[in-house]
Amino acid sequence: MATAYERFNLHATPEKFYIEACDDGANDVLVIDRVSTEMTLSGIKDIPPSGVTRPICGIMGTIRLVAGMYLIVITRKRKVGDLFGHTVWKALEFDVISYKKTILHLTDIQVIKVPNLNLQYNADMQDNKTFLSMINNVLNTDGFYFCTDYDLSHTQQRLSNTSPDFQEMSLLERADQRFMWNGNLLREIIAQPELHKFAFPVIHGFIVMKPCCINGKVFEWILISRRSCFRAGVRYYVRGIDSEGHAANFVETEQIVQYNNSQASFVQTRGSMPFFWSQRPNLRYKPKPQISNDTNHMDGFKRHFESQVLIYGKQVILNLVNQKGSELPLEQAFAKMVNGMENGLIKYIAFDFHKECSKMRWHRLQILVDAVSDMQEEFGYFMVSSDGKVTSEQSGTFRSNCMDCLDRTNVIQSLLARRSLQSQLQRMGVLHVGQKIEEQADFEKIYKNAWADNANACAKQYAGTGALKTDFTRTGKRTHWGLVMDGWNSMIRYYKNNFSDGFRQDSIDLFLGNYTVDETESLTPLHVQKDYKFLLLPVIMVVAFSMCIICLLMAGDTWTETLAYLLFWGMASALTAAVIVVNGREFVDAPKLVQKEKMD
């Protein structure tokens, strides 16, 4: 397998970037012309001594914004651990560097004509700053990982079933495009095979690698969650599937065990219910989900599951949504479509998580685990013996979902993964006959905390806050403090989902290439203006509410006068609030770069 370089120096001159490979024996230099944007391969002898030099950890890619091209580099990394002798890194800090020495070429003042408004606006400069802040918003979202000499985008089983030709490919060529988050940024480098050693795929999600010991036997326990970059986005703005069958918040989670040169792997997936539905924020705590009435759901539904069966084998769907209230129509639609496919490779199981576990009855989750035990036995897991021979393969996966595919989903996945791990460790000889993982206190603590950390990582990337119900994942029981923390996280989610997720969605769309900046555009979608009435209503409500407080603090001469004032300002405040709630969608932070119809 062709590997990528691991260490670099960036030499910058006013005309060019020189990216020098610093690995032992390396003599290659990637030269980027800051004017023409051309990329060429050169040698160390061509680096001018006048350049400003700094070490970097890797190239994330390049992107075009209003001010021209930008180079994105990784400036700090941390070692996560070793996977089969290959070092896995977490990218911690990045730098976004302009090709141009100055952005003074941008228009200082442009007149923007907007209906009902005539604004003089420093357009180009402001747009470029906004786009830069979007790129940094994605880069600052925790969870970017890479390896320079190993393919992190594929599961162990997929890698074992590859051809010699595949194994000779560069990391960029062989990466699973679903999980390569810098694929759009590396398009120019990917187009030039001679430059492939200067870049590597970066995945987004979560990786933990822990040395563990049971019965005096040391083994490596690894958890990898790969977040798909197809139909990627934030909680309420990206639900369901697209026309290609890509599901929102699709995550592939692989649990790996290494012991005495043997290895085992168990894979699960999660993803939004794969038909066309939406749940756009509207200031209500829980917006009502809407199933599209004018779309052929079965086409996208079939595409989704045909690809899942092709990649993972048989599918068992674990639908954990409520079987009452606003979630019920979604559950019924999902069940109806699975029945309509009449595919024997796909099995559907509905489990009302909240109903079954109400009143702190978390032991009832065992009902679901027991119900699918025979299927889990049938699917098995991927295993390689110490002599390198494949002794078993996983023939199917559990595809779990709740509404967000976060909190409830992670709890169930951790239970199924533990059951698989029990069998793997017994076959490897780590666990004795009759021993249970739950009895190994030290390992249980590592296991539960890692799965809770996985839940938090996936939740922060999709919903903007840590996960709910992690107290159960960490301790095996629900606690009152956990309920308090869930309430706090729910409040933060409400604020972010309504007032900052539009910007986050735009950031992801820009980063992944769903929206591309055209330097010739005189007006970008960032300048879509709301009706002035909707800018005034919140001000009126705040003023009316403030007057109510003032009336209480500074009572009039008579109680009837005070009551009259209170009634007037109270009615004004209540009516304004009612108008705002009824027109809630107009007041939330909505995405601007990609049309709403493409996300519904």
From TrEMBL:
Name residues in a coiled coil.
Answer: none
**Keyword vocabulary terms for this entry:** Membrane, Transmembrane, Transmembrane helix
Membrane-spanning ranges: 534-556, 562-582
Q: Which InterPro entries match?
A: SAC_dom (IPR002013)
Domain SAC: from-to ranges: 135-464
UniProt record, GO biological process: phosphatidylinositol dephosphorylation
For this record, the Gene Ontology CC terms, alphabetical, are: endoplasmic reticulum
Per its record, what are the GO molecular function terms? phosphatidylinositol-4-phosphate phosphatase activity
Is Lipid biosynthesis set as a keyword in this record? no
Q: Which Pfam families match?
A: Syja_N (PF02383)
- The name under which this protein is listed is SAC1 like phosphatidylinositide phosphatase a
Species assigned in the record: Cyprinus carpio carpio
